[in-house]
Amino acid sequence: MFRSGESKRVAPARSGSNVDASVWYPPFMTHGRLEVVCGPMFAGKSTRLLARCAELAAQGLEVQAFKPASDDRYDGARHIVTHDGRRLEATPIADANEILAAIAPAVIVDEIHFLGDAVVEPCMRLVRGGRIVIVAGVDRDHRGRPFAPFPAMLCEADRVDKLHATCARCQGPACHSQRLVASDQRIVVGGAEAYEPRCRVCFEPAA
Ligand SMILES: [Zn+2]
């Protein structure tokens, strides 16, 4: 929280309910922060989100979660659901600007690759307003190319968790999502029937 050489500020004694929030809130509350969780499918991104949510709750921070309405896997239209079935209530959104309605000090947005670059500015508006924003999603598409909005999000991030899955072929560290069904669409919503994690060696990009 404090840089070396900087004198530690001591919060003044409380007097009644007259508390200056800018003094009492820790620095990250007044400056905002962007955290990015990314990797291929089956890397544990939603599990990491739920863990961060629990850490923030332990600090007394309320968390509000959002997810694209187009992601309806695992009966999860109103929840962020891990592959092993744990869930966190989330508001489905059709437009990235809907996250600006968030009132909690910490905001989570899952599966941001469904929202594209349109989600960057709303997230940064919340961060500039002092919020903790944590976003998660798949950072490479089925051809292995950077998936919007990750080039911009990774540049803006204060903290990055790049996760790996286990390669379905060789058990090595997987950074790619191998599409198993034929489609020219850049976005195909699916789970284990449509994708499997692959390492750089085993990945076969779509033509
Ligand atoms: Zn492999």
Characterise this structure.
The structure is a single chain. This protein is of the alpha/beta class. It has a domain at 29-164: Rossmann fold, CATH 3.40.50. Helices cover 19% and strands 24% of the residues. Strands 5-2-6-7-1-8 form a six-stranded parallel beta sheet, with helices on both faces. Strands 3-4 form a two-stranded antiparallel ribbon. Strands 9-10 form a two-stranded antiparallel ribbon. The longest helix has 14 residues, at 45-58. The radius of gyration is 19 Å and the shape is globular. The chain starts with 20 loop residues before the first helix and ends in a 9-residue tail after the last strand. 35% of the residues are buried. Zinc ion is lined by residues 167, 169-170, 172, 198-199, 201-202.
Summarize this structure as a short list of keywords or feature phrases.
207 residues; alpha/beta; Rossmann fold; 6-stranded parallel β-sheet; two-stranded antiparallel ribbon; 19% helix; 24% strand; globular; disordered N terminus; binds zinc ion
Q: What is the beta-strand fraction?
A: 15-25%
Order of helices and strands: HHEHEEEEEHEHEEEEE
Major β-sheet annotation: 6 strands, parallel
How many helical stretches?
Answer: 5
Helix content: 10-25%
Estimate the global geometry from the Cα principal axes: globular
What is the CATH top level name of the domain at 29-164? Alpha Beta
Distance between the termini: 48 Å
pLDDT under 50 segments (min length 5)?
1-15, 19-25
On the 0-100 scale, what is the average pLDDT? 84
* Class computed from helices, strands and strand pairing: alpha/beta
The CATH superfamily of the domain at 29-164 turns out to be P-loop containing nucleotide triphosphate hydrolases
Give the strand order of the largest sheet, numbering strands 1, 2, ... along the chain.
5-2-6-7-1-8
CATH topology of the domain at 29-164: Rossmann fold
The set of bound ligands, ions and cofactors reads: zinc ion
